[in-house]
Write a structure and sequence with these properties.
Elements (H helix, E strand, L loop, with lengths): L10 H10 L19 H10 L1 H14 L5 H19 L11 H59 L6 H29 L3 H8 L9 H31 L12 H7 L4 H18 L13 H4 L15
């Protein structure tokens, strides 16, 4: 299967682009390359009559070539070419003076293109974070099921470490509590990420959206997602050991490992697993105690707003 101008690509390349983002274009394309043959003089008049709008359009065209999705790059390039073609073919441009209606059209088109680029950046952030969380959850499942399947107590027996019934229950409880804490951390991040991808993108770039490519943002957020899962593991284990040590007397466990091994009461094991699963989930869900993923302060005070083209006014005409 051939590339055919980017319209038909192998499935493995589409999958790679969906995870890692589209590859960097081998050859950069400037705004002047979109000018139709024979319209060079009109393009020069456009630069002279609308210098600010030309620079905004040129900036957007450059950012469009760094978009996260391949289809978004193609779509933005086509849209920029259509906008530029409409302006160059407009008879009012031949007058060589700034026309209010044409300037208003350029301002609205630039704002629409900017919104589409912001959506692409937010998609890169959310997709990178979701993949990182999924990767961390998968690692958690492996770390959780391996001791249960192989038997962590059996591994200790191989090391000639004597473990009793109570020790076995405590060891398995620690693994289960930590594993559930990891999934609590995943849910916590997903809840806070909803409708805040743009804020997170601004924070990662210190307010300058064009400073970092969306693909780089996605890679950074994948690492952040895996890190958040393991924060949930650590917090759940910390709470588990804190409550098991007896230092905190406020919360009383429904049953102990010693009681399970000696009493052999029906339902004692179920109460044990249910209690520590709930504790682990709540501890992991509060992974926000660590370094905040999203800024809790007001974004208008901490983060400069992106520079937008000024609206067209009567005085500009």
């Amino acid at each position: 299967m051939t590339n055919n101008g980017g319209r038909h690509r192998p499935w493995w390349r589409r999958l790679r682009d969906a995870v890692l983002g589209a590859r960097t274009d081998a050859k950069a394309d400037g705004l002047a390359n979109l000018v139709d043959p024979g319209r060079e003089a009109a393009y020069e008049r456009f630069i002279a009559a609308y210098p600010a709008q030309h620079l905004y359009l040129q900036l957007i065209h450059g950012e469009a070539q760094r978009a996260f999705e391949h289809e978004t790059r193609q779509s933005l390039r086509i849209t920029v070419g259509c906008v530029l073609g409409n302006v160059l073919h407009d008879p009012r441009l031949a007058a060589g003076e700034c026309d209010r209606h044409l300037k208003d059209y350029l301002t609205k088109e630039v704002a629409g293109l900017r919104a589409r680029i912001e959506e692409d950046r937010a998609l890169a952030v959310s997709r990178g974070l979701n993949i990182g969380l999924g990767l961390g959850a998968l690692i958690s499942v492996v770390l959780l099921t391996t001791p249960l399947a192989v038997g962590a107590a059996g591994l200790l027996d191989l090391l000639r470490v004597d473990v009793g019934c109570s020790d076995r229950w405590s060891l398995m409880g620690a693994f289960v509590c930590a594993g559930v804490g990891a999934f609590g951390a995943v849910l916590s991040v997903l809840v806070r990420l909803r409708r805040q991808g743009e804020t997170l993108a601004r924070r990662r770039t210190n307010g300058d959206r064009g400073a970092v490519a969306p693909g780089q943002l996605a890679r950074a957020m994948r690492h952040e997602g895996v890190y958040r899962v393991f924060v949930g593991w650590i917090l759940a284990l910390a709470v588990y050991f804190l409550l098991n040590s007896g230092i905190v007397q406020v919360i009383e466990t429904p049953t102990t490992t010693t009681g399970i091994c000696t009493a052999r009461q029906d339902g004692a094991g179920t109460a044990f697993w249910g209690f520590w699963c709930a504790v682990g989930f709540l501890a992991g869900f509060n992974e926000r105690w660590a370094f905040g993923l999203l800024d809790r302060s007001r974004p208008d005070r901490r983060e400069p707003q992106p520079h937008q083209p000024p609206p067209a006014t009567e005085a500009d005409s």
